[in-house]
Backbone:
């Protein structure tokens, strides 16, 4: 990989009260890299992801974005961080009081001060890209899960981020809708988007990721190329997890 | 955590108490250093303000003259003469009987005149003029009971009604052996109680008793036969303590009026009004009264809803702010306002705040109701904001949207939809509860209703009409609210 790292995580720790969710996490994300984070539920994957864009404040350790400590960011710098690092949630979190089009337009207009016309053009372009331009004027509650998640991805893309975080984007979907969302994500990866994806979709991880991180009990126990990870897992916990996934 | 909670509690208590302190200390200074400029003040202003409760014919009551409602009666004619002698204009302020003495004490009016008996207790808080009229005491009874109750002695161990806080009330209590005395605020209600046999007799001043007997053929009257000290049983005008110069000037006018026997003339003309007035006691005839009541009730409710929602939103946002001071102010405000009755708040704004800034009754009413509603709306909005999924805030933050934008475009619109039924409830109860402003003389529906009752000598019908009007108003409001609720549902 080229360049400097986009994100560096150093000895990251996160507690909720007395519960240690993240014990010690280290990792580096290079520009253009696709990293899939896998692991049993309750291992702290989502918490780790949410520490990257400061939805959660770390208890200890550092998250550096382009070499700068995110915990020392001013309000303004934090806004810039979130502009550049979009996020897609498991439960979509579309704004139900706004139409699909307005869901996409709101942030560009309010944060980037884009004109209404430009924002609309951009939004329609993105909806076309995820194949939902005919849904522009409906409200989110009339969308299927797969459509809602594609809109959510388009909404994140409307801010022109350099990096996207995916928090189990397909876990809340009916099985027949998983494919359409993964297809969009695959396309993004092919276009060179930097992505950190928390997922249970091993096929996707294998096919698209540059690196797979296995998390358990608040640690990253193993980092490897996908083929290595799935064919020859090193850590006994990884072995156990992967054998269970493949045999299920 | 425990210590933190106690700190917040302490802050709230301190805030409430300092507020209380501020208002209780202020008036003491006022009276202590005020010189007697009572007469000069009126002459400088060019008008004398009279507080009265116009539901007591023939002393004072409301009639419609050339389509305009107007307070008339013996008291008004006397006061007009007094004003003429002083060389100033007469301004009449109508309010409930409970409020007229408070009005002079707090400087809302220069003189209270409402058939008031200058009892020893009242003399402790206000100054009185000479007695201007001594009507004597009587009892109203049902005509069917004429044979049964021939005199006071026959009323022993019976149920006697009287206006609360009046001489009649005390007399019935002390001078009729074994009587159960039932007190109510208004003579109109007492007459109704009498006619429905909830009480056996009603202690009332002779001129009022005569007016009722003349206008209601089911009623009869008997003389009270009380032996009384003239200085306590007549009617006098009340002034704020320390109004010696004003009282002296007024007493001169009263002497003149008495010497010329003008009161007989005034009573006669009051009687004429009453005859004109009771020709037609159908409710349709009084539609202008009700219309005015509706107008004011709607005006107060509409303005109070707007300011209540604005204030409630601000308080709710303060509650969610990072600043501990703002949070504490919001909590203290809501707790304090919810913990005190609206009636007390209305009186506090009108009379209490009135010591510092002289607010008209309507404005005071609107302010009090708005301030009250704000506290309840805050609680509703706070609940609404909490009801919006946390994921919405996170999604918004992940897009870089500022907290203010998140509130405005995402949280509040969704909260509004969730709380709409509760908010609608608050609006409906506001329409009904705004009726409390009638105690400070705002001519809302309840106030007008009491005028009509006093005017027509009909106890129930006006109440029924007002009930129907309230229902129609709230029913229409509910339909409108449902319409918007439906539209919001559609948007989801």
Residues:
């Amino acid at each position: 990989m080229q360049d400097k790292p986009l994100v560096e995580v150093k000895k990251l720790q996160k507690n909720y009260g007395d519960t240690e969710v993240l014990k010690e996490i280290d990792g580096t994300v290079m520009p253009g890299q696709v990293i899939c984070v896998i692991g049993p539920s309750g291992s702290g994957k989502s918490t780790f992801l949410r520490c990257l864009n400061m939805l959660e404040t770390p208890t200890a350790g550092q998250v550096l974005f382009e070499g700068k400590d995110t915990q020392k960011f001013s309000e303004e710098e934090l806004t810039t961080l979130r502009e550049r690092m979009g996020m897609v949630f498991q439960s979509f979190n579309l704004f139900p009081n706004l139409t699909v089009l307005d869901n996409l337009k709101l942030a560009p207009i309010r944060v980037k001060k884009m004109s209404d016309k430009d924002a609309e053009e951009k939004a329609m372009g993105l909806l076309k890209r995820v194949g939902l331009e005919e849904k522009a004027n409906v409200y989110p509650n009339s969308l299927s899960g797969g459509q809602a998640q594609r809109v959510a991805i388009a909404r994140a893309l409307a801010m022109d981020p350099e990096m996207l975080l995916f928090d189990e984007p397909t876990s809340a979907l009916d099985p027949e809708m998983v494919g359409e969302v993964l297809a969009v994500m695959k396309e993004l990866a092919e276009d060179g988007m930097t992505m950190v994806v928390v997922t249970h979709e091993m096929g996707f991880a294998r096919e698209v990721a540059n690196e797979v991180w296995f998390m358990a009990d608040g640690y990253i126990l193993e980092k490897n190329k996908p083929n290595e990870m799935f064919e020859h897992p090193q850590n006994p916990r990884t072995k156990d997890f992967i054998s269970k996934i493949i045999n299920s | 955590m425990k210590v933190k909670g106690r700190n917040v509690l302490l802050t709230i208590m301190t805030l409430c108490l300092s507020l209380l302190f501020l208002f209780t200390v202020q008036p003491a200074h006022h009276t202590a250093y005020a010189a007697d400029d009572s007469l000069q003040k009126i002459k400088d202003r060019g008008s004398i303000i009279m507080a009265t409760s116009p539901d007591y014919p023939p002393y004072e009551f409301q009639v419609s003259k050339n389509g305009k409602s107007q307070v008339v009666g013996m008291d008004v004619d006397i006061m007009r003469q007094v004003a003429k002698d002083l060389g100033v204009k007469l301004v009449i302020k109508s309010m409930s009987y409970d409020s007229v003495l408070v009005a002079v004490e707090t400087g809302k009016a220069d003189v209270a005149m409402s058939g008031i008996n200058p009892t020893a207790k009242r003399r402790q808080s206000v100054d009185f003029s000479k007695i201007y009229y001594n009507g004597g005491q009587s009892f109203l009874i049902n005509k069917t009971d004429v044979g049964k109750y021939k005199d006071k002695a026959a009323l022993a161990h019976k149920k006697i009604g009287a206006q609360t806080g009046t001489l009649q009330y005390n007399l019935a209590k002390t001078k009729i052996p074994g009587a159960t005395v039932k007190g109510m605020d208004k003579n109109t209600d007492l007459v109704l109680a009498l006619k429905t046999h909830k009480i056996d007799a009603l202690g009332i001043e002779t001129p009022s008793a005569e007016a009722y007997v003349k206008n209601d053929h089911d009623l009869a009257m008997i003389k009270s036969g009380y032996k009384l000290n003239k200085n306590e049983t007549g009617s006098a005008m009340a002034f704020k303590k320390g109004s010696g110069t004003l009282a002296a000037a007024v007493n001169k006018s009263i002497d003149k009026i008495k010497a010329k026997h003008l009161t007989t003339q005034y009573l006669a003309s009051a009687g004429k009004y009453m005859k004109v007035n009771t020709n037609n006691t159908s409710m349709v005839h009084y539609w202008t009264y009700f219309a005015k009541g509706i107008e004011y009730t709607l005006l107060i409710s509409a303005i109070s809803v707007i300011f209540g929602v604005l204030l409630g939103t601000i308080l709710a946002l303060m509650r969610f702010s990072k600043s501990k001071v703002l949070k504490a102010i919001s909590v203290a405000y809501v707790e304090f306002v919810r913990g005190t009755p609206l009636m007390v708040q209305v009186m506090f704004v009108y009379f209490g705040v009135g010591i510092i800034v002289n607010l008209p009754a309507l404005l005071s009413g609107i302010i009090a109701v708005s301030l009250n509603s704000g506290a309840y709306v805050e609680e509703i909005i706070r609940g609404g904001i909490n009801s919006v999924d946390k994921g919405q805030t996170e999604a918004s933050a992940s897009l870089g949207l500022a907290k203010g934008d998140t509130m405005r475009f995402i949280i509040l619109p969704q909260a509004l939809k969730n709380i709409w039924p509760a908010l609608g409830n608050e609006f409906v109860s506001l329409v009904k509860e705004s009726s409390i402003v009638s105690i400070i003389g705002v001519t809302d529906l309840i106030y007008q209703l009491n005028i009509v009752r006093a005017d027509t000598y009909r106890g129930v019908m006006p109440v029924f009409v007002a009930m129907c009007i309230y229902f129609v108003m709230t029913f229409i409001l509910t339909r409108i609210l449902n319409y918007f609720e439906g539209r919001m549902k559609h948007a989801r």
